[in-house]
Amino acid sequence: MSREERVTASTPHLNELAATDIVRGIAAGTFTCEAVVHACVTRIADQDGIIRAWTNFDPAAALAEARVLDRAAMRGPLHGLPIGVKDVIDTFDMPTEMGSPIYRGHRPPADGACVALVRAAGAVILGKTATCEFAGVTAAPTTNPHDETRTPGGSSSGSAAAVADCMVPIAFGTQTGGSVLRPASYCGVIGYKPTYNAFNRFGVKPAAEGLDTIGLIARTLDDVALVRAVLLGAKPAPLDRVPIAPRIGLTRTHMWANAQPETVDAVEDAARRLDDAGAQIVETALPDEFSGLTHAREIINDYERAMGMAYEWHHHRERISERLRKIIERGLGIAHADYVAAVRLAEHCRTALDAVFAAADVLLAPCVRGEAPEGLHHTGDPAFQALWTLLHTPTVTLPTAIGPHGLPVGIQLVGPRHEDARLLALSQWIWDKLGIRRPWRRTRRSGDHGVR
Prior knowledge:
By secondary structure, the chain is an alpha/beta fold. The chain has a single domain, classed as Amidase signature (AS) enzymes (Alpha-Beta Complex), CATH 3.90.1300.10. It has 15 helices and 11 strands. The chain has helices spanning 3-10, 19-28, 33-51, 59-71, 113-120, 157-164, 181-187, 221-232, 261-276, 293-308, 310-315, 322-332, 336-357, 383-390, 420-434; strands at 54-57, 82-86, 124-129, 170-175, 190-193, 213-218, 247-250, 280-283, 362-366, 395-402, 408-414. It has an 11-stranded mixed beta sheet with strand order 1-3-2-4-6-5-10-11-9-7-8, sandwiched between helices.
């Protein structure tokens, strides 16, 4: 038996490791880059016929890249780490098709900035993950790893499903409404949407540029912090410790009546247990004018999507889905003055958040209406996530609860703009106090190398 075979035999579930454990293990020589990529490739081969998380996936190329890394000096802090890339983000060596027949086989000449940065740090781009059409509303074929009859959420459908099913430890998503946090909640993993513009968006197909944000989907907060540091050009470091119990603002928002019982229970149960753990729970109501933000985001989204898709609209209209055509038509009908009024309301409310955060270190809010809905044609309601996307705040979802059908339900944690590092540290404190590591356990399939 070769050394590679011995390593693989002694560590049969490398695909289940956290990203931080993978890079440490490779650096220490405990296992190889090839062994890790092989474990991920095997998992994909076993399960992706059902889950359909990947749109462009070349196992031979990924394994070849891993072998190159095994023969090279340590390239950077992500050396050997497999990463999935949502298929609205450019990659020079594989197609970027954006969930649309218009771009079938499209080969960009360069990587998007976020891809280039992680490659330079030693990551292996495992493949492109499925996305709703142009990161919008028309669903990809991806299924939820916990129940194939239910949506994984969108538009970062493939990224969330692949991470949840242990096909890859971490993946890029993008969020214009709720496209990182909602699929993360539905699939039972961690979603992180940074402060608006924190990560360079070069090489990402725009949806609505005043809202679009690159995010990360992972299974641990340490993994989020690791890749975040690379994207910021910073040296990776452990999350800060929270020295004293934080003030947590329980923020139900103006949409609370739309929350299903499992989301109500998830938020209120988290608040009770965090209170027991010593946190100061502060009932936090947003100012009345925030109730107008749901409509304002729809105006901004539709107007900016319509303007940004002028080429596709005028040259390939028949190849755009009916649902997206309706959004573009609405956007084309929006008066510029109405768009400006929506932008001004958002700007006013961002400023008003300073007073909200004067009384709380972090906000605890609903993330989704409830469990992942049945069916694959609708990816769920983005309203609970979209509020904070418009406000440009950093947000995290943690899968802390289980709904009536045994599916994961996440809570949402919100921090002040540009205080992402503190939000991640507070999220880790909350995660530790809630005492949950894997709140779900899906049914194992025949031949499943399964989630443990």
